Amino acid sequence: MKKSFCTIAVLSFVATAAAGAQSSCPAGVPTAATAPENAKQQAADLFQFIAPELGQAIAGGSATLGQNSTLGGLGHFSVGVHGNVVAGSVPDVANFPTCYTGRYKAVLPTSKSAIPMVGADAAIGVFGGLPLALTNVGAIDLLVSAQYVPEKTFSGVSITAPDGSLQLGYGARLGLLSESFIVPGVSLSYMKREMPRLNVNAHRGGDTLSVTGLKVKTSSWRIAASKNLLLLSLGAGVGQDKLESGVDTVRASVGAPALARATSTLSAQAQSLTRTNYFANVSFSLLVARLTAEVGQSTGGDVTTYNSFSGSQPAGSRTYGSLGVRFGL
User: Fold this and answer.
1) 10: Cβ–Cβ under 8 A, 6 or more apart, which residues?
2) What is the pTM assigned to this prediction?
3) Which of 21, 135, 144, 246 is the most exposed place for a label (fewest CB within 10 A)?
4) How far is 308 from 305, CA to CA, in rounded Å?
5) Cα dihedral across residues 303, 304, 307, 308: positive or negative
């Protein structure tokens, strides 16, 4: 009898704990104060989810796609354009659960989606390095980058760039080994990039979730190596990305039943994440240009959200690909 009582008590405790973990919309009547609270928290978690993906789309892999070795000093330069695509996920805002009586924890749905980013970069030779046997060491290049984010609307989400769609970045590359007929090119690079400031509005029925002043900055170092094999070049590298993201305000404007439209604002939000990055690429010579395809993966870091997400998690590993063309002298 005692054993049965203990078993029932344990089962009752487990059931109670499970019920507590499975939150639901609080009971009550919506008010102007409670109506936007749940949507506002969802908007904050939306920022926390997409920021790492945007950061990876900016950072990519190689510091200058299609060129891992230094240029060879003054008089040498190269320019390139590229597109990065992250195999990511996007929160399905249209199907977020609604609640107008207060904030509560839920599993927010996501759907797989490619996260694209278009950019350009230039490398300028500054110092050709010091001769050492079959190579040079200590060569220096200056690096400049540009990121472009067009204004667009898709699936109920509108993106605007109030300060313009173009943002510049900068960096430098140090030649550990300059590429020669026998020796591969090996370099250490450091780049700072950022995305133009964005405003994002997502619509769900009569509700609007807004993120204003979204900024994403990346600081990346890379150790990369490459070797030309006639018309083909192979390269690979490893590095680390520090992703710094923030928003000025998070706002929810909801139209709860039997209640005038209610709006609530959350103060500035921030996120800092450090991730390891691995990549490999192959380039093909096109006489006056070089076409490069690259694939890589980033992993690491922790992201804390109030709600949880289905499928991929905010700090989960992300695979990405890049394709670009490069011209140089």
Assistant:
1) none
2) 0.88
3) 21
4) 7
5) positive
For residue 320, give the nearest of 113, 119, 90, 87 by alpha carbon: 87
Contact yes or no for 56/320 (Cβ under 8 A): yes
Full DSSP string of 1-69: -HHHHHHHHHHHHHHHHHHHHS--PPPS---TTTTTHHHHHHHHHHHHHHHHHHHHHHH-SSSSTT--S
Rounded to whole angstroms, the Cα distance separating 122 from 124 reads 7
For 123-179, the pLDDT digits (tens) are 999 999 999 989 999 999 999 999 998 888 776 778 899 999 999 999 999 999 999
CA 289, chain centre distance (Å): 29
Instruction: Kindly report the number of other CB atoms within 10 A of residue 202's CB atom.
Output: 22
Burial class (CB in 10 A: 0-12, 13-18, 19+), 276: middle
Are 48 and 314 in contact by the 8 Å Cβ rule? The answer is yes
What digits encode the pLDDT tens for the residues 265-311? 988 899 999 999 999 999 999 888 999 999 999 999 999 999 999 98
Give the separation between CA 216 and CA 25, rounded to whole angstroms. Answer: 33
> Residue 317 corresponds to which tokens in the numbers above?
């590993």
DSSP at 275: E
- Tell me which amino acid residue 147 is: Q
Distance of CA 64 to the CA centre of its chain: 18
Quote the DSSP letter at residue 93: G
Query: Is there a contact between 173 and 123 (Cβ–Cβ < 8 Å)?
Result: yes
Tokens of 144: 């400049």
Q: Where are the beta strands (DSSP E) in 128-231?
A: 130-132, 135-137, 140-148, 152-154, 157-160, 166-177, 185-194, 198-204, 207-229
